[in-house]
Amino acid sequence: PMIAVLNGPNLNMLGMRQPEIYGHATLDDLEQVCIQTAERLDVAIDFRQTNIEGELVSWIQECRGRARGIVINPAAYGHTSIALLDALLATGLPTVEVHISNIHRRDAFRHHTYTSQAAIGVICGFGVRGYALALQALYDMIEDEDE
Ligand code: DQA
CA–CA separation, 34 vs 139, rounded Å? Predict the structure, then answer.
């Protein structure tokens, strides 16, 4: 099975961007965490990042029929984008939302995400390790479905 790992705006700046909040791992390091987890689980992943909202919408749409599930860090678009929520609802694929930082101990405007309404669950505050947790959780759910 294939799991899409989609990353939103400014995550290409990981490692340089507010390291006290997001840590020192770069986007490449994050991809390595996902690749290693996928190898351990024996699943394929399609790892991507974009700063463009519409590109995320298109990528989510393309997951239909191609991916068994989606791990998404919508970054700031999670807080603003009904289009991303609608795209996730339209695919109907099991989705886990990830945030590197604990959005609930930050600004009030980060406490709500539209996208989480389409997610099975949300993992936040565990740094890039959250992606490994998300992949594991999705994998377990797909396994259960296949039984
Ligand atoms: C983030 C949290 C968002 O509030 C923020 O806009 C980001 C990154 C995170 O991974 O912690 O860009 O999604």
Answer: 13
ipTM greater than 0.90 = yes
Q: How many domains is the chain built from?
A: 1
Residue 73 among known ligand-binding residues: yes
Catalytic residue from among 77, 99, 131, 139: 99
- Determine whether the shortest distance from the Cβ of 10 to ligand 1 is under 6 A: yes
- 45 lies in which domain range? 2-146
Query: Any idea what the CATH number is for the domain that residue 69 is in?
Result: 3.40.50.9100
Cβ–Cβ < 8 Å for 54, 17: no
* 12 annotated as ligand-binding: no
pLDDT tens for 53-85 read 999 999 999 999 999 999 999 999 999 999 999
pTM over 0.90: yes
Beta-carbon neighbour count of residue 34 at 10 Å?
21
Ligand 1 pocket test, candidate residues 5, 103, 129, 131, most atoms within 8 A of CB: 103
Determine whether the shortest distance from the Cβ of 7 to ligand 1 is under 6 A. Answer: no
H/E stretch holding 139 = helix 129-146
